[in-house]
Amino acid sequence: MRLIEDRVAVVTGSGRGIGRAVATMLADQGAAVVVNDLDADVAGEVVAAIRRAGGRAEAAVGSVTDPDFPKRLIATALDAFGGLDIIVNNAGYTNDGLIHKMSDEQWQSMLDCHLTAPFRILREASTHLRDAAKAEGEAGRPRCRKVVNVSSTTGVGGNAGQINYAAGKAGIVGMTKTLAKEWGRYNICVNAVAYGFIETRLTAAKAREEKASVDGHSVTLGIPDSIREAAIRGIPLGRPGTPEDAAGPVLFLSSPLSDYVTGLVLLVTGGSYM
């Protein structure tokens, strides 16, 4: 039997990179997955790939920073699959700058994406999660549900040029630990993963000044070779992580193997942050 057979998972930012690897891995292990991305075509590709492999998936296209989106996201899971067991708050991007050059808008963009959006999604899900837990407890059939929030070593240890991103990623750690205490009585485990150097569009070698638009913000893709090489030299395992390396710990924290693990921030770094 697969690890999370007949569970329902929501994975934000799952059209590319780490999020796509998480959505695919959860589906491979038996979960029905709600795939989220800003781009309908990208989300549709992931849904189609999961279905071709025999899995179940639906798309919820939109920005997690839209105040109205959490309601639609959670409704997609409940309407399509009849329940909700796993929430992975993965959507994110960077909007870097030194403090003396950073605008209020630039600062707020990271708090909106990495902190306020997960808060709103979890708040929207809370009524269903609590009511389901109470009903299952009364029926003598308790079911352990999971929340996995995505943080970063930047949120744990800081990083020059990312004060806004660091604040958001540190904040999600506080949210994780608080909800682990609030929701323990509902048999909900709330944990976080803090990633180090994972190969994505944001950490790829920057051959040119390539940019993407996210929520109306222009985001630079890739980092200079010199910075990449220095970061890789500091990884004891000797290489950056792959999206699949990043997805494995999320699967663990989403599965029954971690039913007595809550309030944890799991460093996924190849040993670069000890």
Structural overview:
This protein has a 7-stranded parallel beta sheet with strand order 3-2-1-4-5-6-9, with helices on both faces. The chain has 8 helices and 9 strands. Helix content is 44%, strand content 18%. The chain is globular. The protein is an alpha/beta fold and 274 residues long. Helix 1 crosses helix 8 (243-254), helix 3 runs parallel beside helix 4 and helix 4 runs parallel beside helix 6. The protein has a single domain, classed as Rossmann fold.
| Major sheet attributes | 7 strands, parallel
Query: How many structural domains in the coordinates?
Result: 1
| Helix/sheet category | alpha/beta
Query: For the terminal residues, how far apart are their CA atoms?
Result: 35 Å
Strand content: 15-25%
CATH superfamily: NAD(P)-binding Rossmann-like Domain
- Per CATH, the architecture is 3-Layer(aba) Sandwich
Mean pLDDT: 94
Shape call: globular
Helical percent range? 40-55%
Q: From the structure provided, what is the oligomeric state, counting identical versus distinct chains? A: single chain
Q: State the total count of DSSP E strands.
A: 9
CATH class: Alpha Beta
Instruction: List the strand order in the largest sheet.
Output: 3-2-1-4-5-6-9
Could you state the order of secondary-structure elements as H and E? EHEHEHEHEHHEEEHHE
Alpha carbon gyration radius: 18 Å
Please give the count of helices: 8
CATH topology: Rossmann fold
Uncertain segments: none
